[in-house]
Write a structure and sequence with these properties.
Layout: E1 2-12, E2 15-25, E3 28-34, E4 44-49, E5 51-56, E6 58-59, E7 62-63, H1 71-80, E8 84-91, H2 96-112, E9 118-119, E10 122-125, H3 147-156, E11 161-166, H4 173-182, E12 186-189, H5 196-205, E13 209-210, H6 226-233, E14 238-242, H7 250-260, E15 264-267, E16 279-283, E17 286-291, E18 294-297, H8 309-320, H9 324-330, H10 333-339, E19 356-359, E20 365-370, E21 373-375
Parallel strand pairs: 1-4, 5-8, 8-9, 8-10, 10-11, 11-12, 12-13, 13-14, 14-15
Antiparallel strand pairs: 1-2, 2-3, 4-19, 6-7, 16-17, 17-18, 19-20, 20-21
Helix pairs in contact: 5-6, 8-9
Length: 377
């Protein structure tokens, strides 16, 4: 089946193309070309690559850790409604058997497919952290790093484990980073009290970047740059950013985008309350409360977010002043590059997978196509 989509502007890696059209054959973009002169009809104001959310715990009232085979389908539809064409269901610190069951469910959904945003693999956030910056993770369930255990998790995931988050100051961390890199698993650093120097050593060993930068790590001080300082200044480092205005102040988002415009990964870190009304929820097996869209633990700490990825893009544009094309790349091209999927996803180009979104001039979602198929919103 062929589809022709015409837009006032089309976003490519090289920038905006005015009055262009995309020709899609089944799942693939086969051409991007100027609209013939005299053709007035347009299918969209803006055509852009579908977003990729690499860090998602839940939403729409359900959690990735829920032992229910229908949860991932429900979450995939929820993510598609915010312009996400691909995502990584993300685990939390829990008993190892619970994590293994979640990885099995994710791998089954990866190979089976289903409605909504494509599951691109899994993201293991915990249990390999340290207590000082634990966030909502229960420290009594933290574990030490060992290669046989991680190999077992990769096996359980049927080789769909894409990202492992860990604290780089833990014993054997550098050896583990090198081992996971050899297994084609990305390592992100977070929930940690690591120093600037320890963080750089982890980047030298092959770690990719920082988990939700600024949150759950040693911060930036003018005499002690910490994990944040290492991430902002090391051009190898990808920086996850929760751009909801609560986890990171807009001024600090501005600093991040100024220092690392080409290395920002917009994420949601969304939990089950995303898209739901204020009330009582749980994360990592512990009660949390959402008030005015902000989720906190009983002690008052932030516990995941209720952010939608399309809202994160708009927040950067409207409240930080980031150009729209850069903000969109931070939610599409950059995560595709980090995952090594940029030859097929993350931007609009002939030969790439036809996962794209139509936006209005306010960057609000109008339509989404995933693998060439239009998905009613």
């Amino acid at each position: 089946m062929t589809t022709l989509l015409r837009a006032r502007r089309v976003l490519t890696e090289q920038g905006w193309l005015d009055n262009h059209q995309l020709l899609i054959d089944n799942e693939t973009i086969v051409a991007i070309e100027p609209i013939p002169a005299g053709t007035m009809a347009r299918d969209a104001e803006l055509l852009c690559p579908a977003y990729i959310d690499i860090h998602v715990h839940g939403g729409d009232g359900v959690d990735v850790m829920d032992d229910d085979p229908g949860v991932l389908d429900r979450l995939a539809m929820h993510k598609a409604r915010e312009g996400v064409g691909g995502w990584l269901p993300t685990t939390v610190t829990a008993p190892l058997e619970d994590i293994e069951r979640a990885l099995r469910r994710i791998s089954q959904r990866y190979y089976r497919g289903g409605p909504g945003a494509s599951v691109l693999g899994s993201y293991l956030e915990g249990p390999y952290f340290t207590p000082q910056n634990k966030g909502a993770h229960p420290p009594e369930l933290f574990r030490e790093l060992n290669i046989p255990e991680l190999d077992r998790l990769i096996e359980v995931s049927q080789n769909t484990l894409r990202v492992v988050a860990l604290a780089p100051e833990k014993p054997e961390a550098l050896q583990m980073i090198k081992h996971l890199k050899n297994r084609n698993v990305r390592v992100m650093l977070g929930h940690s009290a690591a120093s600037y120097e320890q963080t750089l050593q982890a980047f030298d060993a092959g770690a990719e970047g920082l988990v939700h930068c600024f949150n759950g790590m040693t911060g930036l001080h003018h005499r002690n740059p910490g994990m944040v300082g290492a991430g902002l200044t090391d051009k190898r480092a990808w920086l996850e950013l929760i751009a909801d205005g609560h986890h990171v102040h807009p001024a600090v988002m501005n600093i991040s985008c100024t220092c690392a415009k080409s290395r920002i990964l917009l994420i949601t870190d969304a939990m089950s309350a995303a898209g739901m009304p204020d009330g009582e929820y749980s994360i990592c097996g512990h009660p949390v409360t959402m008030s005015n869209g902000i989720v906190r633990t009983e002690s008052g700490g932030l516990a995941g977010s209720t952010l939608a990825l399309d809202a994160a893009v708009r927040n950067l544009v409207n409240h930080v002043g980031v150009p729209a094309e850069d903000a969109i790349h931070m939610a599409s091209l950059h995560p595709a590059k980090m995952l090594g999927l940029d030859k097929e996803l993350g931007s609009l180009a002939p030969g790439k997978r036809a996962s794209l979104i139509a936006l209005n001039p306010l960057l609000e979602l109008q339509n989404i196509w995933i693998n060439g198929q239009h998905l009613p919103l």
